[in-house]
Design brief:
By secondary structure, the protein is mostly helical. It is built from 36 helices and no strands.
Length: 570
């Protein structure tokens, strides 16, 4: 670590020695979030603390940092009498790349450990194709009768087949424990033992869902081209978790076979989570043969499925345009509203006419989506239509507001004046979108207009004016936002905080830190999220302190801290 890096984090490292317990805990958590490998050495000393919570937090932090040198220290806690601490240590170990510390983990798997613990440690090693790990697994297969340990060792040879283990596996295939026998037969099938493979094929039809799931999980860890028939059965399994696991087996099939499977599966699948994964697979195929099934999804209530289906159809590109255009006028309105977005993504001269007609449609959402489609294409003819929409006096407010944003996304300064004419519009959405659009176009008169709009009656307009001013280099905007943050209206305060989050300038950090004391949850949430967006190191301890205070849900703080981590690391 450079000297500047050390000084940057020095207050956190000093906090590890603090006599203030809260400060020490926060410093530990902060160093874990930063994930600087050199910090692991400073944290290790605290593992001898008599304070169990401090030790637990240090173990978590070391897991986040992932310095291989910490493995030997954490592994000592997996046999701790304190079950919670032992679980924390085991969870932390899962974060490490063990390759530089394999010998440490292998030694920890010695026979004097309880079988349940040894199994957990063996599971951590299963991904490492290393002669030392293979030797350990072989030794366990030959020396133990514990079913769980035997299964863990056999699972290693499912993932990493070894012809040298054929005889040992053949003996274990006849084990009285069904789990051991099943694992051994699957391992033998990876060695293309015909008898074992036939046994696995029979068991995939078992009425026992646990057996079928074990087979599915094992096969995806080491798939063979011969497994296609087994996966065909797993694709249609009655248990949704098995079908979800089996999706990885699609890679074994040729393109035509995959498309055939996907068509059938998309039509039959009832689980939304799995269906979403299948749509992603369909998008990768880019095949027009999947159009019919994806088309049906444009009418479902689930927006995530709708959005994914739009992306998947758009990925087909020009090859699907003619079919869409032929059928467009006969489609239900809800489908046309989605399909116009597809056409906008595909683009090309063929779709321009349909988008132009939709821009003049009577239905609000078809027009709004047609505006978005036109914005994606950035075609001069369509842009001229967007200008006419703004010049018309009777244009629907929502359509007008969307058209303003669309012209801003063209980055064409020729449209600056027509957008500027909307700054005095009576609807706040139109005014707010106009400011945002003009800031994209770098309109020369924007600063003057924004100074006026900082006093607009609508808080969103004021916020967008502040953001636009900052973008144009006017740092005096922070004084205005600080003033807004003290307003009596919670909506104004919340908007000021939101603006600071969008600006992401650390000049606003002191204002946001004060807003953590705001009594309104809406303002408070915006402040936490804005600090997370900024990634200012000064906010780390305050954010961690808020998380420990628990004013909001654990999930809220976890998301905020994750975002903060991403920002500060970038």
């Amino acid at each position: 670590m450079t000297e500047s890096g050390k000084s940057r984090f020095q207050n956190l490292i000093d906090g590890l020695k603090s006599t203030n317990r809260e400060e020490k805990l926060l410093s530990v958590a902060a160093l874990g979030i930063l994930r600087v490998r050199q910090h692991a050495d400073a944290l290790v000393d605290l593992l001898s603390s008599p304070d169990r919570e401090v030790v637990e937090q240090v173990v978590k932090a070391l897991g986040h940092i992932g310095n291989p040198g910490s493995v030997k220290h954490i592994i000592e806690f997996v046999v701790n009498d304190d079950g919670k601490l032992a679980d924390t240590a085991m969870l932390a170990l899962r974060s490490f790349n063990f390759q530089p510390a394999l010998d440490v983990v292998i030694r920890a798997c010695s026979s004097d450990k309880p079988p349940q613990l040894r199994k957990k440690l063996l599971d951590l090693l299963i991904s490492y194709e290393d002669v030392r790990v293979a030797s350990l697994m072989n030794e366990i297969m030959g020396q133990t009768r514990d079913p769980e340990l035997l299964t863990a060792a056999i699972n290693y040879f499912i993932k990493h087949p070894s012809a040298e283990r054929h005889t040992s596996l053949k003996m274990l295939a006849g084990n009285s424990n069904w789990g051991v026998s099943l694992a051994a037969n699957i391992a033998l099938s990876r060695l293309k033992d015909e008898g074992a493979y036939a046994h696995v094929r029979r068991l995939v039809k078992s009425s026992n869902a646990e057996v079928r799931q074990i087979i599915a999980e094992a096969l995806v860890s080491r798939p063979l081209i011969e497994d296609r028939n087994i996966f065909s059965a797993l694709f249609e399994d009655s248990r949704h978790r098995i079908r979800e696991i089996a999706i990885d087996g699609l890679a074994l099939f040729g393109a035509d076979e995959r498309i055939s499977v996907l068509r059938h599966w998309l039509a039959a699948e009832t689980d939304a989570k799995i269906k979403l994964q299948l749509i992603k697979k369909a998008e990768a195929e880019k095949s027009a043969l999947l159009y019919d099934e994806l088309y049906k999804l444009l009418q479902v209530a689930d927006e995530s499925l709708q959005t994914a289906a739009i992306e998947a159809i758009a990925a087909m590109g020009e090859r699907i345009v003619d079919r869409i255009l032929i059928d467009f006028d006969r489609m239900p309105l809800v489908v046309r509203e989605q399909m116009i977005l597809v056409l906008g993504q595909i683009g090309g001269d063929k779709v321009t006419r349909t988008i132009r007609e939709s821009l003049a449609a009577k239905e609000r959402w078809l027009r709004i989506n047609a505006v978005d489609a036109a914005a994606r294409m950035n075609d001069p003819e369509l842009n001229a239509d967007l200008v006419r929409i703004l010049q018309a006096k009777d244009t629907d407010i929502w359509v007008r507001a969307t058209a303003v944003s669309a012209l801003g996304r063209t980055f064409n300064t020729d449209y600056s004046e027509v957008i500027a004419s909307q700054l005095k519009h009576e609807d706040a959405r139109v005014r707010a979108n106009s400011i945002e659009a003009l800031s994209e176009l770098k309109w020369s008169e924007l600063p003057e207009a924004c100074h006026r709009l900082l006093h607009d009656r609508n808080d969103r307009v004021r916020v967008n004016a502040a953001i636009a001013l900052w973008k144009s280099g006017h740092e005096e905007v922070f004084a205005e936002l600080e003033k807004m943050s003290r307003d009596k209206s919670r909506w104004v305060r919340a908007s000021a905080v939101f603006a600071l989050g969008r600006i992401k300038d650390r000049e606003g950090t002191p204002i946001l830190l004060k807003m953590l004391a705001d009594s309104e949850d809406m303002v408070y949430r915006n402040a936490v999220e804005a600090l997370a967006e900024q990634g200012d190191l000064r906010a780390m301890l305050p954010l961690l302190k808020e998380a420990r205070g628990g004013r909001m849900s654990t999930d809220f703080y976890e998301k905020a801290l994750t975002r903060f981590t991403e920002t500060i690391r970038s």
